[in-house]
Amino acid sequence: MAVGSRPLVPSRLAPGGIAHGSKRIPTSQFGAYLALTKPRIIELLLITTVPTMVVAQQGWPPTALVVITIIGGALAAGGANAINMYVDRDIDALMERTRNRPLVTGRIEPARALAFAAVLEVLAFAVLWWGANLLAAVLALSATAFYVGVYTLWLKRTSTQNIVIGGAAGAVPVLVGWAAVTGSLSWTPVVLFIAMFLWTPPHFWALAIKYADDYRAADVPMLPSVVPLSAAVRQMIGYTVVLVAVTLVLIPVGGFGWIYGVSAVVLGAMFIGSTIWLARTPTPSASMRVFGFSITYVTLLFAAMMLDVFVRHGVS
Predict the structure, then answer these.
(1) pTM higher than 0.70, yes or no?
(2) Beta-carbon contacts of residue 262 (< 8 Å; ≥ 6 apart)
């Protein structure tokens, strides 16, 4: 399906403002450009970045470095999301939850959106190179290239593995955070990357179950829209089990103590339990509860990492 091959349709307010979706139509030009960046997704990416920096530093990193990394990471993610909206403006018009996006409503012209995205990416690279180091800047730019080139332009419209492979871009912020502090990479950020890579499918497929009809209407082969719900949930359970195992591998690899260890076990058991519950209660409302918990899970898990470091090293 070529970009722009389908005509745009009049916008309608999407039901239920949720992460990854469109809660309402922006009422200002500033709001429209902000919406292009998908700020709720940026928030989620930064939730993993700062704790990773704390783990890399084994304490609180220089505050200026944290601020620079947050700004650079937000700019890079915002630019990638804006390019995604530019490419997907035709299918966004066909999906209930994305019909309010600025390029669908006509609030922003496509060429201006693409230029805006390019500026954000240039600024992100410059900020990270200047304030952190070249490795952090290159990693952030590579995440954008992967998200746009592999996920948006290639896999999203052609493969049920789209979010599995393409979701790797969302795992890169942990590498950026680690590199910003150390100027290098090691096994700990690699295992963190694998954990976030494995977290993405059950997280996003829980949302896709709710909006399976949207993906069918747009001819996007998101897994829950092309296989029986039971089959999709089985895969979610499988990814979640492996995810929890990887988070436990982090205990010896990252040198974590009991705070992180207990948190990883309890939160992991709850996440696995939520996906099993979804298998027994296969409804869209149940899938959205799993989606919501998946965000809570990753937030609390990374908070536990940070707390573990602070307690073990006596950081107040």
Answers:
(1) yes
(2) none
